[in-house]
Hints:
The protein has helices at about 15-25, 40-50; strands at about 5-10, 35-40, 55-59. By secondary structure, the protein is an alpha+beta fold. It has a three-stranded antiparallel sheet, with no helix packed on it. About 15% of the residues are buried. The mean pLDDT is about 95.
Amino acid sequence: MAKIRITLVKSVIGQKPAKRATVKALGLGKISSSVEKEANDSIKGMVASIAHLVKVEEI
């Protein structure tokens, strides 16, 4: 499977608790933190729900 790099580019301050939980579940903490994940359907869905907060790159 392909891998993707997810980078938090916007703060979660002011976001709903579900969005904050999604960011934390992906392993992101502070702005500019990045994680590499497998590009499966569950990860893609999580990224889609917080697309306005993150930058995604294929590796």
